[in-house]
Amino acid sequence: MSVNPGWFLLLVLAEDAQVAESVFEKAVQQSRIYEKAKEFLQNRALEPDLNPNDWSDLCLAYDLFYPDGFTQILDDIVADRSSIMPGDELEEATLALKITDRESATMILWVGLGYEQASRLPGYFGNMFVPPKDVADVLQTVEQILGELNSAEFDKRAGTVHALGYYKNFPQTLLSLLLSSLRTALHEGNGLLALNYPHIGDLL
Questions:
Q1: Rounded distance between C-alpha atoms, residue 26 and residue 43, angstroms
Q2: Is residue 1 domain-resident?
Q3: Using CB atoms within 10 A of its CB, is residue 137 exposed (0-12), middle (13-18) or buried (19+)?
Q4: 103 lies in a domain?
Q5: How far apart are CA 137 and CA 134, in angstroms?
Q6: In the chain, how many domains are there?
Q7: Which domain does 128 fall in, by range?
Q8: pTM of the model
Q9: Which of 51, 107, 154, 177 could form a disulfide linkage to 171, CB 3.0–4.6 angstroms apart?
Q10: Is residue 117 included in any domain, yes or no?
Q11: 41 and 119 in contact (C-beta within 8 Å)?
Q12: Which residue has the higher pLDDT, 63 or 53?
């Protein structure tokens, strides 16, 4: 049975930004993702690239990329329990959605970039909330990362993730999705909420 993770990039209206930030921070606290991310990155400070023979790195993926607190945000939106937006507005709010096979788009992105560059991305392993006031700065950071990207090195690193073989131009595609979503949010004066979901079939 195929498992299809999804990466949702959602527009959050300026008037809902304060509530969205509160909901996101609650997920950060519940999941202890700040502490987990800090420990994960510190342990790899001397190993900037994923060792393809060390699959213990990928075994951490579920805990780092799919904490319950973040997946619950999407569950609540779909079930009309969310204070951010009602479920029937999810499609309209979705600026981009990347569905992959087995491994998440954001895992491929992280592994491909390497830990040093990927840690410059906002949020936590693909889960992020960027309030309207921060969108311009975050956009500039992502533009810088894309400008520094070495596609050959990205492909070599990301090739350790099985799902890469199903897709082409992943570094440009994934970072471009984030860029275009941030640009839309900036143009409209709104915020951006990005969330990983472990299996789209369980959500929709």
A1: 26
A2: no
A3: exposed
A4: yes
A5: 6
A6: 1
A7: 6-203
A8: 0.90
A9: 154
A10: yes
A11: yes
A12: 63
* Residue tagged 């990155």 (tokens): 41
36 belongs to a structural domain:
yes
Beta-carbon contacts of residue 145 (< 8 Å; ≥ 6 apart) = 113, 117, 120, 121, 175
Do β-strands 94-99 and 6-12 pair in parallel, antiparallel, or remain unpaired?
A: antiparallel
Q: Residue 48 pLDDT > 60, yes or no?
A: no
CA distances from 22 to 26, 65, 110, 198 (A): 6, 20, 26, 23
* Residue among 72, 85, 99 at smallest CA distance from 8: 99
pLDDT reported for residue 55 = 45
Nearest-Å Rg of the Cα atoms of the chain is: 16
Beta bridge partners of 173: none
112-135 CB burial, b ≥16 within 10 A, e <16: bbbbebbbebbbbbbbbbbbbeeb
Residue 178 has pLDDT above 50, yes or no: yes
Counted residue by residue, the chain has a size of 204
Residue found under tokens 């390497």? 114
Q: Which two tokens stand for residue 70?
A: 């973040």
Would you say 127 and 178 are in contact if contact means Cβ atoms under 8 Å apart? no
Phi, then psi, of 74 in degrees rounded to 5 = -70, -40
Rounded distance between C-alpha atoms, residue 1 and residue 6, angstroms: 16
Query: Within its chain, how far is the Cα of 29 from the centroid?
Result: 17
